Amino acid sequence: MNRPDDKFALADGNFIPCIGFGTYKIEDPGVAYRSVADALEVGYRHIDTAAIYNNEKSVGAAVRDSGIDRKDVFVTTKVWANELGYDRASRAIDASLKRLGMDYVDMCLIHWPANAKNYSDWQAINADTWRALEQAKMDGKVKTIGVSNFLVSHLTSLEENCRILPAVDQIEYHPGCLNADTVGYCKANNILVQAWSPIGRGRLLGDHLLEGIAHKYNKSVAQICIKFALANGVLPLPKSTHKDRMIQNLDVFDFELDWTDIGDIESMEDNRRYGSHPDEQNFCVL
Ligand code: A2P
């Protein structure tokens, strides 16, 4: 990858720009609109939203008003945890399209799996929700379908019960939270891993090891984290409401991390999961 609009090839034949702009927690309509407009202006061509982010309207408007050809911007949305099952998920996809003001999205993901903690029939629920995504793809409403926060157990169960395999799994991924089992499984099965919170929600910025590596390359810790994901074939989705940081987070193509530095980052204690654990979360309850 040499530029932010260079693309990863997906298993379904589609292509996805190698850095995406994350929009989680950017809820205020004015801020969301401005942030996405700024992101597109500085070169992002991949915007990641979700029904639960409460900003699809602003995202859609900013994409439309950018003047960039719709086909040149990759837009992802997600079906939230209270929309599981075939009927609810189908309606949720239509509602997202309406809020976005789009007749298709480039990608739709199941945001969180139903898990064994909350449902004895979690496998059937995930399979039913997935069927809605498969149908939306066949109807042309969604180009690529995938999942988010799925661990190996959720993926293997889904694969036994689906016609179309997920092309993407979007998980928490950053130094100190490598999810090695899931990433290994995805790599072996041609599922692209996307990293949410690639800079650890900003909480890694003061880490001494990362600061030392950043100093060596004359880069910021945020840039090292983003490059670390790319170096591992993982697609980072950094977010920021500040234009200078948006620019900085794309400026990661003029250096390569030495394998020794990658090894040092991989040796960091793997204990920094900042979001929910997919097997522990309890918001996927209808
Ligand atoms: P802000 O929106 O004020 O710029 P992640 O993408 O890992 O969830 O991290 C997002 C957090 O990191 C946000 O709080 C964002 O704050 C901050 N952030 C994003 N990019 C940078 C950067 N280049 N330098 C410092 N902080 C950043």
Give structural notes:
The protein has helices spanning about 30-40, 55-65, 85-100, 120-140, 150-160, 180-190, 210-215, 220-230, 245-250, 260-265, and strands spanning about 5-10, 15, 20, 45-50, 75-80, 105-110, 140-150, 170, 190-195, 235. Helix 2 links the parallel strand 4 (about 45-50) and strand 5 (about 75-80). Helix 2 crosses helix 3 (about 85-100). It has a single domain, classed as Alpha-Beta Barrel (TIM Barrel), CATH 3.20.20. The strands form two sheets. The chain has an eight-stranded parallel beta sheet. A two-stranded antiparallel ribbon has the order 1-2. The protein has about 290 residues and is α/β, with parallel strands linked by helices. The protein is globular, with a radius of gyration of 18 Å. About 40% of the residues lie in helices and about 15% in strands. The protein is built from ten helices and ten strands. The protein binds adenosine-2'-5'-diphosphate (A2P).
